[in-house]
Amino acid sequence: MLNNTGKTIYYFVLWGILSLASVKLKELVLSRLAQNGFAEIKTPFLSFYEVHNTGAAFNLFTDKANALIIAAVVCTIIITAIVLAKTSKLTQSMVSAMSLLSAGMTLNTFERIHNGFVVDYVYFTFFKDFPVFNVPDIMIVIGALMLVLSILTNHRTE
Asked: Residue 144: is it exposed, middle or buried by C-beta count within 10 angstroms (0-12/13-18/19+)?
């Protein structure tokens, strides 16, 4: 069990590690695509190809980059404030979930600011018509699910 200071440090360290790993994985995938001259790399379960997404998941809010940026920044600030102010009431799984959410939102936000879009590159081959997504999207979904489950199970450290 981590103490309050440990949980806070854990939040920021995990946020950084997740962000760095995501950036490096994206660089690897996109460089392989460019290096091989292929527009797509296929495996039995996953395919990788570059798609520029001006919206959010499932093409929601297409061409609403400013609204998505503002929403992500506000959510990340709120999550970080909760971690800093309510650390004693948070379990380690809640802090992990919040790190995943913050990392995913930060990465997509920086990309949206820099490019005007987010580069999606992962596609589940076995799900027909499933949208192409990226690792920060996975972080956001897993983080949200973990946070909901942690809250529902109501495990608190005292």
From this structure: middle
Q: Residue with structure tokens 């799900």?
A: 127
| Alpha-carbon distance values, 136 to 4, 45, 79, 131, 139 (Å) | 27, 19, 16, 14, 5
The per-residue pLDDT for range 77-129, each reduced to its tens digit, is: 999 999 999 999 999 999 999 999 999 999 999 999 999 999 999 988 888 77
Structure tokens that stand for 72 in this block: 């992500």
Does the global pTM surpass 0.70? yes
Q: At 52, which helix (H) or strand (E)?
A: strand 46-53
Calpha distance 97→157 (Å, rounded): 16
**Contact between residue 41 and residue 34 where contact means Cβ atoms under 8 Å apart:** no
57: tokens are 């998941």
Q: What is the DSSP letter of 37?
A: T
Under DSSP, is residue 55 helix (H, G, I), strand (E, B) or coil? coil
Structure tokens at 118: 């987010």
Nearest-Å Rg of the Cα atoms of the chain is 17
- The Cα–Cα gap between 117 and 106 comes to 14
